[in-house]
TrEMBL record, chain A:
Protein name (record): Zinc ABC transporter ATP-binding protein
PANTHER family listed in its UniProt record: METAL TRANSPORT SYSTEM ATP-BINDING PROTEIN TM_0124-RELATED
Originating organism: Sulfuricurvum kujiense
Keyword list, A-Z: ATP-binding, Nucleotide-binding, Transport
Family assignment from sequence similarity: Belongs to the ABC transporter superfamily.
From TrEMBL, chain B:
Gene Ontology CC annotations of this record: ATP-binding cassette (ABC) transporter complex
Family: Belongs to the ABC-3 integral membrane protein family.
PANTHER family assigned to the protein according to its UniProt record, in alphabetical order: ABC-TRANSPORTER METAL-BINDING PROTEIN (PTHR30477), METAL TRANSPORT SYSTEM MEMBRANE PROTEIN TM_0125-RELATED (PTHR30477:SF0)
Keyword hit for Signal: no
Organism superkingdom: Bacteria
Lineage: Bacteria, Pseudomonadati, Campylobacterota, Epsilonproteobacteria, Campylobacterales
Keywords: Membrane, Transmembrane, Transmembrane helix, Transport
Protein's name in the database: Zinc ABC transporter permease
């Protein structure tokens, strides 16, 4: 597997939805091993930016490269783990066990007609172990708490052993204790396993010590490699256009 | 007496066709139920009726005309839903009422609501020919092979379409494949179950199986078992009491659904 220092490379990215400009002239790079926070006001285009990176939306114009490859020729999607917004909100009657949901993370790796190999089983077990959901293996996903579901969804994203994990405001409906465990996990994945993290959040104070880069998205994308400077209260107030307070938490 | 009915070639054909349809309909139905797309089967069944009417009016094979009409409609529905982003229930409602209206106009042009059309509406165990069995066997095997080959991908899409797409699964292509398979299964099923009742064979088994609160694989197997039991009992009742086969099968499904509901009150 080739190593590309640049995971995401975006140039002149524009995106319009029904005639309204959502993103204008976005240009940035995210490097391997980085912990990048994507912040900005609601409706500013954070989720759209991530969806564009993942190929879920087509840009109006501009270039996106993933691992050095133009997006339309990129095939190794299993190298990117994705935990979408509100992923913890699952249809309570859906017939899926925790093991089945985590196993979905291996489907792209297995290919058509591919049966579950020993490697698949190991990767699934490790992801479940890491997220502390092994004992929930046979439970239906709909019967779990918000925090437990969130851990299952992250385990699914980790099952493909991705190089980068993208998480989009995953704490909706999740209790405070689970949120803290989640932040701790992201830090461990980034520091110990050298996994790159792209994290959409409103709660930047919590991860202030961990992040190496901040993308502030509000139609345009502002990049800062000095997060400490960007998350200063006066700077945040200027960017959001309203008085903002950054609260640092202890892990 | 029950075993005696299997001495008749028409009953043998009806059972072979019915069991094939039970497996295919319940397996493919699981995916549309989980995607809250259940009315697709009902809609395509009504569209098949247009094909049957055209076939009867112009002296062409009603079965092949039903397959053609159902396939074209399934692609149009999926196109409007996925490319134009229209609400799926609205698209289905438009096709359902529109195709029924068209079928009624064609039938009225034929001048009579004949017995042949009646058997296509409600199913008839007498109407399954050996040629029908061959057609069902060939297309059913192809549909089954595709469903099994892409089973895990279709399951992932049903659970979370966006994440499946982000994971590199070709969601649009597989969605078109699934609706095409369902269109063909519905059109092939109308001899035994009838156009107005095939939707139930696709929807009720998975809905009843889901009530038991198991994972997807056991739920799918239970759904197939429910469909098979209903077809066996329904066809037997149809033979014994001279009932339309489709109606007898659907009533069995309903009884099983009510039992599942009572056992699993949540």
């Amino acid at each position: 597997m080739k190593f590309f220092p640049s995971l995401f490379e975006v140039n002149g990215l524009n995106f319009e939805r029904q005639g309204t400009l959502v993103l204008k002239g976005a240009a940035f790079r995210i490097l391997s091993g980085e912990y990048c926070a994507i912040i900005g006001p609601n409706g500013g285009g954070k989720t759209t930016l991530v969806r564009l990176l993942l190929g879920l939306e087509k840009p109006t114009s501009g270039d996106i490269k993933l691992f050095g490859i133009p997006q339309n020729r990129f095939r190794d999607w299993n190298r990117i783990g994705y935990v979408p917004q509100r992923s913890a909100l699952v249809d309570s009657t859906f017939p899926a066990t925790v093991r089945e949901v985590v196993g979905m993370g291996r489907y792209a790796v297995r290919g058509i007609l591919g049966f579950e190999s020993r490697d698949d089983k190991t990767a699934i077990s490790e992801a479940m172990e890491l997220m502390g959901v092994s004992d929930l293996s046979d439970r239906l996903i709909g019967n779990l708490s918000g925090g437990q579901r969130q851990r299952v969804m992250i385990a699914r994203a980790l099952a493909s052993n991705p190089d980068v994990l993208i998480v989009d405001e995953p704490n909706t409906g999740v209790d405070v204790e689970s949120q803290h465990r989640f932040y701790e996990l992201l830090r461990t994945l980034n520091r110990t396993k050298k996994m790159s993290i792209l994290f959409i959040t409103h709660d930047i104070g919590v991860i202030a010590e961990d992040i190496t880069r901040v993308l502030f998205v509000n139609q345009t994308v502002l990049v800062s490699q000095n997060p400490a400077e960007m998350i200063r209260c006066d700077e945040m107030s200027r960017l959001y256009g309203t008085p903002a307070h950054v609260v640092s938490h202890n892990h | 007496m029950l075993l005696e009915m299997l001495d008749y070639p028409f009953m043998q054909r009806a059972f072979i066709a019915g069991l094939m349809i039970a497996v295919l309909a319940s397996l493919s139905g699981s995916f549309i139920v989980l995607r809250r797309y259940s009315l697709l089967s009902e809609t395509l069944a009504h569209v098949s009726l247009v094909g049957v009417s055209v076939g009867l009016l112009f002296g062409m094979s009603p079965l092949w005309m039903a397959v053609l009409a159902s396939l074209v409609a399934s692609w149009m529905i999926e196109y409007l839903r996925s490319v134009h982003g229209m609400y799926s229930d609205s698209v289905l409602a438009i096709f359902l009422s529109g195709s029924l209206a068209l079928a009624i106009v064609i039938v009225s042009m034929a001048g009579s609501f004949n017995a042949s059309l009646f058997s296509y509406l409600f199913g008839s165990i007498l109407s399954v020919s050996t040629q029908d069995l061959w057609v069902m066997g060939i297309f059913g095997s192809l549909a089954m092979a595709l469903l099994l080959a892409f089973f895990k991908e279709l399951y992932f899409i049903a659970f979370d379409e966006d994440v499946a797409r982000a994971g590199g699964i070709r969601v649009t292509l597989l969605n078109f494949m699934l609706v095409s398979i369902i269109a063909v299964i519905i059109a092939l099923s109308i001899r035994v179950v009838g156009t107005l009742l095939i939707g139930a064979l696709m929807v009720i088994p998975p809905v009843a199986a889901i009530r038991f609160g198991m994972g997807f694989y056991p739920t799918t197997l239970l759904s197939i078992a429910i469909a098979l039991i209903s077809v066996v009992i329904g066809l037997s009742a149809s033979y014994l009491f001279s009932l339309p086969s489709g109606a007898a099968i659907v009533l069995c499904l309903l009884v099983i659904f009510i039992i599942a509901l009572v056992i699993n009150r949540r």
